[in-house]
Each structure stands twice: as C-alpha cells, then as structure tokens.
C-alpha cells in the first residue's frame, strides 16, 4: 500500500473574510500542517486541489442572473448558485497563507470550464472531463488516500465519493474538514454519505497513530 494526503481547496475564499467563507474554515489549516508533517515523516505524498474559476463562470449567481444560495440547473445538472469566488489569479483563489505549501508535491486545479461546476478534485460535476489527479496518483502507485479540507458538503464529499469509485482506499480526516451548511445538517449528512459509500472517518489523532 502507498498513501497520499489530499488537501481539498484550502483557499482564502473559503476562509473567514473570503468570498465563500466557511465557518471556522481557517481552523483546518493547523490540522493540515500537522497532517503534512506526519506524512513527511512517513515518506507519504502530499497533493492539493484548488478551485480555479474564470470570472465568467456560470456557477456564479451574478453570471446566471440568479440569487446566491438558491438552486437551479447548469448543463442539465442541479446547481447551487454561488457568490463569485476563487477567480483565477486573485488573492481569494490562493492557497491559505499559513498552509505549509513547501511539501505539496502537486496542485490540481479544477472548475476552469465556465459552463460546468467541478466540486470533485477528480472530475467535473457531469463526470465528463477529469483532472490529471487520478493519472498522477496511479503513476505514483498510490492505493490509499487520506482526504481533508473545504468544504465538507461539496468538494470534500464529491472528491471522496469519486476516490472510492476509482478504487482508492479512502480515509476522511474529519476534524480537518468544515462545511458550507446551507442547511444546518449538510456536513453531518455528507460525512454519513461518505461513510456509507465506504470511506473510513478518522480524526487527525487516529490518522497520526495508525
Ligand atoms: C466549493 C462551492 C463552490 C468547495 C467550491 O470547495 O467545496 N464549494 N466551489
Ligand atoms: Zn467553486
């Protein structure tokens, strides 16, 4: 077995003060830095995803003439309309300043096609196009993933479900995740869904001790 740590969307816009701020989103950064240290010590690979939208992305409510936080359709898929966030080359799209980026081997960008959203670090929401992540992990011989980051109920959830479908043994470091929670229980439901799909839910301290 060979393990990689996959850090999902630890970007300024998902942290307090950002355009799509997740409550306590920045609390994940210290957890990520500890997980990075542990993985380094074990010679495990560390990778990250980065939400990376063009300014004309149609998931932005303003570009689809809709209200933020409401539900519609994009390319025939259900779509939550988001505030403008993680626009390419802006501060909001950068990985969090306190994140120890030094040991991140590769960053996989997603959400670049303006006509479809892309929550998962592997595929767009229609499973039409994929990022280079799966091929990269395969090339490295990775069989096991530990996943954490933002947001539990969107990008973490869909990355975990895709990882499981692609055959990775998948752990979710739960204290390293925070959710949007448009509905108060969304993150809790998302974690249950990941667990039912076969993910192992662990705390950082369990991850460290294994
Ligand atoms: C995300 C909503 C829109 C996420 C990205 O990273 O969870 N959520 N874009
Ligand atoms: Zn996005």
Structural features, described:
The chain has 210 residues and is an alpha/beta fold. It has one domain: Isochorismatase-like (Rossmann fold). The chain has five helices and eight strands; from the N terminus they run βαββββαβαβαβα. It has a six-stranded parallel beta sheet with strand order 5-2-1-6-7-8, sandwiched between helices. It has a two-stranded antiparallel sheet with strand order 3-4.
At CATH level 2, the architecture is 3-Layer(aba) Sandwich
Instruction: Supply Rg.
Output: 16 Å
Number of domains: 1
> Taking all residues together, what is the mean pLDDT?
98
> How many strand elements?
8
Amount of helix? 25-40%
Strand percentage, roughly?
15-25%
Distance between the termini: 14 Å
Detail the poorly predicted runs: none
- Overall 3D form: globular
Protein name: nicotinamidase
Family: Belongs to the isochorismatase family.
EC number: 3.5.1.19
GO molecular function: nicotinamidase activity
List keywords for this structure.
210 residues, alpha/beta, Rossmann fold, six-stranded parallel β-sheet, two-stranded antiparallel sheet, 5 helices, 22% strand, binds pyrazine-2-carboxylic acid, binds zinc ion
């Amino acid at each position: 077995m060979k393990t990689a740590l996959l850090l999902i969307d630890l970007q300024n816009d998902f942290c307090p003060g950002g355009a799509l701020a997740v409550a306590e989103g920045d609390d994940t950064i210290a957890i990520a830095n500890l997980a990075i240290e542990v993985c380094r010590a074990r010679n495990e690979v560390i990778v990250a995803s980065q939400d990376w939208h063009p300014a004309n992305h149609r998931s932005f409510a303003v570009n689809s003439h809709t209200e933020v936080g409401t539900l519609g359709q994009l390319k025939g898929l259900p779509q939550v309309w988001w505030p403008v966030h993680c626009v390419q080359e802006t501060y909001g799209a950068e990985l969090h300043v306190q994140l120890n980026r030094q040991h991140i081997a590769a960053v996989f960008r997603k959400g670049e096609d303006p006509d479809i959203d892309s929550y998962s670090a592997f595929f767009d929401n229609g499973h039409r196009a994929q990022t280079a992540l799966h091929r990269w992990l395969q090339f490295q011989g990775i069989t096991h993933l530990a996943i954490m980051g933002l947001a539990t109920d969107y990008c973490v959830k869909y990355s975990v479900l895709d990882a499981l479908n692609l055959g990775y043994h998948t752990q979710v470091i739960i204290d390293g995740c925070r959710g949007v929670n448009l509905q108060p229980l969304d993150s809790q439901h998302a974690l249950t869904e990941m667990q039912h799909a076969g993910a192992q839910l662990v705390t950082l301290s369990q991850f460290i001790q294994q």
